[in-house]
């Protein structure tokens, strides 16, 4: 059942501290600064292709960025495109990211990779799924069943599992810091859940023309995901943009009736540049909602702040995403949408 929540989606958002704990359980050694993924052999790929669809594609985008940061050539692909245009590279480790493990596009891409002799790895929630059975290796994200059509807790666990995968392939000097933030992640997510003003923000903006989400680097996939979640369940128009791309076109869409949700953490170069983008939209009259750890002064330019705890830059997007899940949920709820079963959508898309 829904354990007292009005919708499975809200229940699953609130389950994240537990599902993340399960994802991390027994896999991280804080003292040694090491990750052990028992189900995997030691992998040292010369390059990685990540294939996925929808929300899982956003996880793939994030995973590719993590691996690239560690110097491993990695590229994300939409599964349906990879299936019909597989780039050369039989030496690639091909990672299929799929909650259900039954998405036809992803299975087709992985079968194509397999046919070419590539080593394949499934990152999935579903034990015994077709993807798990057909792949050479499997990394389970251990979220438990997800009933809401909109993926929530499984996205958080995909990002977490891809962090673990990256640490197991190429640990690097910062491994200890990442692991410390991963250890704190379930509690930090709980803190966001306990004290979110997302419902208030949703009521302030429930009759907007469009909703925009901006982020750079590892926050970009979360900007895309925030927009996808909102459009799926609220039926409102929403778009995610790489913050630096705004001025190359999308800025033309910005008005006083298009709230802009800006993901800004840390106080480095990326934060400074995104704050520059925030000023650009503010100058066009757009309301700004900052999702931030408070380390920069982005709050000064924002109409609302949705705070998140300080965390490692690789982990902060997972926390920021929780605020965006809640915004999407509350906008849809205020519009009276059937949140757990949005029109035209299925939990698992088993046709190409
Ligand atoms: C979005 C959503 C879909 C799925 C996509 C892939 O909330 O649920 O975009 O992410 O259909 O599904 P899986 O991960 O099962 O391959």
UniProtKB/TrEMBL annotation:
EC number(s) per entry: 2.6.1.16
Catalytic function, reaction form: D-fructose 6-phosphate + L-glutamine = D-glucosamine 6-phosphate + L-glutamate
Main location: cytoplasm
Cellular component annotations (GO), alphabetically ordered: cytoplasm
Active site per UniProt: 347 (for fru-6p isomerization activity)
Record GO biological process: carbohydrate metabolic process; fructose 6-phosphate metabolic process; protein N-linked glycosylation; UDP-N-acetylglucosamine metabolic process
Molecular-function annotations in GO: carbohydrate derivative binding; glutamine-fructose-6-phosphate transaminase (isomerizing) activity
Subcellular location, record wording: Cytoplasm
Alphabetic keyword roster: Aminotransferase, Cytoplasm, Glutamine amidotransferase, Repeat, Transferase
Keyword Chloroplast carried by entry: no
Occurrences of domain SIS (ranges): 37-175, 201-342
Top-level taxon: Archaea
SUBUNIT field: Homodimer.
Cited function: Catalyzes the first step in hexosamine metabolism, converting fructose-6P into glucosamine-6P using glutamine as a nitrogen source.
Protein's name according to its UniProt entry: Glutamine--fructose-6-phosphate aminotransferase [isomerizing]
Residues of the full protein shown: 249 to 600 of 600
């Amino acid at each position: 059942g829904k354990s007292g929540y009005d919708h499975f989606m809200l229940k699953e958002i609130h389950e994240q501290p537990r599902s993340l704990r399960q994802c991390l359980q027994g896999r991280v050694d804080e003292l040694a600064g090491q990750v052990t993924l028992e189900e995997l052999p030691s992998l040292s790929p010369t390059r990685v292709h990540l294939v996925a669809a929808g929300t899982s594609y956003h996880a793939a985008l994030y995973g590719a960025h993590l691996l690239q940061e560690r110097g491993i050539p990695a590229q994300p692909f939409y599964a349906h495109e990879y299936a019909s245009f597989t780039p050369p590279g039989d030496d690639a480790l091909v990672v299929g990211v799929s909650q259900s493990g039954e998405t036809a596009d992803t299975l087709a891409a992985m079968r194509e990779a397999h046919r070419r002799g590539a080593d394949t790895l499934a990152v999935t929630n579903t034990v015994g799924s077709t993807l798990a059975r057909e792949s050479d290796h499997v990394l389970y994200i251990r979220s438990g069943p997800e009933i809401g059509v909109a993926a929530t807790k499984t996205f958080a666990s995909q990002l977490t599992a891809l962090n673990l995968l990256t640490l197991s392939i190429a640990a690097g000097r910062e491994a200890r810091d990442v692991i410390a933030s991963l250890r704190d992640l379930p509690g930090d997510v709980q803190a966001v859940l306990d004290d979110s003003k997302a419902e208030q923000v949703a009521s302030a903006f429930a009759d907007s023309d469009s909703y925009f989400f901006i982020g750079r680097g590892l926050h970009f996939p979360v900007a895309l995901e925030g927009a996808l979640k909102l459009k799926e369940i609220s039926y409102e128009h929403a778009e995610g943009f790489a913050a630096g791309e705004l001025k190359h076109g999308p800025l033309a869409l910005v008005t006083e009736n298009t709230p802009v949700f800006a993901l800004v953490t840390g106080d480095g170069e990326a934060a400074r540049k995104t704050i520059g983008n925030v000023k650009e939209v503010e100058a066009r009259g757009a309301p700004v909602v900052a999702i931030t750890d408070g380390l920069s002064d982005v709050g000064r330019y924002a109409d609302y702040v949705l705070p998140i705890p300080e965390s490692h830059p690789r982990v902060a997007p997972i926390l920021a995403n929780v605020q965006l899940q809640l915004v999407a949920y509350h906008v849809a709820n205020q519009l009276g949408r059937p949140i757990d079963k949005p029109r035209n959508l299925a939990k698992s898309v088993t046709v190409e």
